[in-house]
Write a structure and sequence with these properties.
The complex is a heterodimer of chains A (73) and B (153).
Chain A: E1 2-8, H1 14-28, E2 32-38, E3 45-50, E4 53-58, H2 59-71
Parallel strand pairs in A: 1-2
Antiparallel strand pairs in A: 1-3, 3-4
Chain B: H1 5-132, H2 135-152
The chains are: A alpha+beta (73), B mainly alpha (153).
Amino acid sequence: MTNITVTTAVPLTDKQVSLITATVTKKMGKDFVLNQVVSTEVVGGVRLTIGSTQLDATVRHKLEVLKSQLMNI
Amino acid sequence: MDIQLPQIIFQIINFSVVMGALTYFLYKPVLKVLEERQKRVEEAQRAAEESITEKNRISELEQKAAEILEKARENAKASESEILAAAKKQAKAEIEKMTISWEEEKKQHLTDMKNEFISTVITTAEKVVGESLDSKKHQKLIDAQLKSLLETI
């Protein structure tokens, strides 16, 4: 069974949860558990953690990437 | 003229006495004076020779002393040049070392300042973005990014 964690700064809407469940079921099957984490640390956006894979589209992550790029100039 | 034996004997004795007196009172003192004079001349000559020898020796010693002094001067000059060259080399190395150190320090300082500035900008941006996102904007952002992320699964 795969753990899927969705991290956002505000709670997900039912529509968003349904979209995630439907898409993951379609692509990976029904063998997963969906966890929702609300954390203001991410500032905004969403982070999907599927098993050991992390798909990060949070504002914090984007700012960290920008910071790293600026520091390496 | 008759030769008279007593007169001949008298003459012989007389001559002998005169010879003895001359020898004792004149010849010997004169000979002694001459010997002394010769001795003095010889001594003077010997002294002169010794003086010349001594003078030559002194001259040789002076020449040797001059050579030693000249050699010492040359050595001192060479040592002075070597010391100066070594000092210049060391000073140059120190300056280069200090310049490199200063450049590195300057570079590090600038990097620190830049990083500090970037951190401040990012922190401020986080705060500004966080404060500018209301619930509606949050949901809109999540919708947009969720769609994109789900496509990559």
